[in-house]
C-alpha cells in the first residue's frame, strides 16, 4: 500500500474521511503519519484514535518558511511517507517543498477550481450568485490552489443558503471526493506525467456531480 502522510492544521474532518477509507485493508493507501503545524489541532486526536502516529511541528518555532518546510519533509521521510495529502493545511509552502514532493502531493480545496482560489470560497460563491459550487482535489504546484485537477464534486447552491449551510454541503462532498481521488492514484488507475493527469476511461461518479 502507498505510504501516505497527511498534513493538517485544524478540525481534520477530511483526515477522518481518509482514515476511514484507509482502515479497509483493501484500500491501496495507508496513512503512516499525520502532521500538524498547530499544536493541539483536533485532527491529531482523530489520528490517535485510529492508531496512526502523529507529529506536531509548530511553524512559530521556525525563523522562516524554508526551515519549517525542511523539518516537515524530514519528519515525513523519517516515517517512510511516499505521498502527501494536504487536508486543511493552512500554510503556504515553499517552492522547494513543492518541487521535492512534485507529483507526490495533493490538496483539497473548497471550490470548483480555477474559480475561487484562496479563502472565503463559500461566501464568494454566494456573492457571485453561483448556482453550482463544490470542491477540487488537485496536485500541488507553487502557485496557490493551482495544479493538475484529480477530481471535482459539484453541489447545488440553494435559495436561502448561508455561508455555513453551503460550507456544510460542500464538506460532505469533500469527504466523498478525497478518499476516492487518493484511491485512484494509489491504485494506479489514474496517473500523472508532467502536468498531464489521466483518469480511467470511465471515471467514478464521485468525480462529477454529487
Ligand atoms: C476543508 O473545507 C478544506 O477544503 C479547506 O479547509 C477545510 C478543512 O476542514 N482547505 C482549504 O481551505 C485549503 N486552502 P477539515 O480540517 O475538517 O478537513
UniProtKB/TrEMBL annotation:
Gene3D superfamilies registered for this protein in UniProt: Formyl transferase, N-terminal domain (3.40.50.170)
Enzyme Commission no: 2.1.2.2
Matching InterPro entries: Formyl_transf_N, Formyl_transf_N_sf, GART
Binding positions ((6R)-10-formyltetrahydrofolate): 65, 90-93, 107
Domain spans labelled Formyl transferase N-terminal: 3-181
Keyword flag Transferase: yes
Catalytic activity reported: N(1)-(5-phospho-beta-D-ribosyl)glycinamide + (6R)-10-formyltetrahydrofolate = N(2)-formyl-N(1)-(5-phospho-beta-D-ribosyl)glycinamide + (6S)-5,6,7,8-tetrahydrofolate + H(+)
Keyword Transferase (UniProt): yes
Residues reported in the UniProt entry to bind N(1)-(5-phospho-beta-D-ribosyl)glycinamide: 12-14
Alphabetical UniProt keywords: Purine biosynthesis, Transferase
Site feature location: Raises pKa of active site His: 145
Family indicated by similarity: Belongs to the GART family.
Protein's name in the database: Phosphoribosylglycinamide formyltransferase
Organism listed in the record: Kiloniella laminariae
Gene for this chain: purN
Amino acid at each position: 500500500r502507498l505510504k501516505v502522510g497527511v498534513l493538517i492544521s485544524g478540525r481534520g474532518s477530511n483526515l477522518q474521511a481518509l482514515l476511514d477509507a484507509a482502515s479497509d485493508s483493501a484500500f491501496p493507501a495507508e496513512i503512516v503519519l499525520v502532521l500538524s503545524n498547530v499544536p493541539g489541532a483536533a485532527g491529531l486526536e482523530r489520528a490517535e484514535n485510529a492508531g496512526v502516529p502523529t507529529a506536531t511541528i509548530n511553524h512559530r518555532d521556525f525563523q522562516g518558511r524554508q526551515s519549517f518546510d525542511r523539518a516537515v519533509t524530514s519528519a515525513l521521510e523519517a516515517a517512510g511517507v511516499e505521498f502527501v495529502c494536504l487536508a486543511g493545511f493552512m500554510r503556504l509552502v515553499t517552492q522547494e517543498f513543492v518541487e521535492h514532493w512534485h507529483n507526490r502531493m495533493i490538496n483539497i480545496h473548497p471550490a470548483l477550481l480555477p474559480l475561487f482560489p484562496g479563502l472565503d470560497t463559500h461566501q464568494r460563491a454566494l456573492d457571485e450568485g453561483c448556482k453550482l459550487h463544490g470542491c477540487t482535489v488537485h496536485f500541488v504546484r507553487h502557485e496557490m490552489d493551482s495544479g493538475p485537477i484529480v477530481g471535482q464534486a459539484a453541489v447545488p447552491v440553494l435559495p436561502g443558503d448561508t455561508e455555513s449551510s453551503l460550507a456544510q454541503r460542500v464538506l460532505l462532498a469533500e469527504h466523498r471526493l478525497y478518499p476516492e481521488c487518493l484511491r485512484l492514484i494509489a491504485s494506479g488507475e489514474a496517473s500523472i506525467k508532467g502536468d498531464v493527469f489521466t483518469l480511467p476511461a470511465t471515471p467514478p461518479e464521485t468525480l462529477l456531480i454529487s
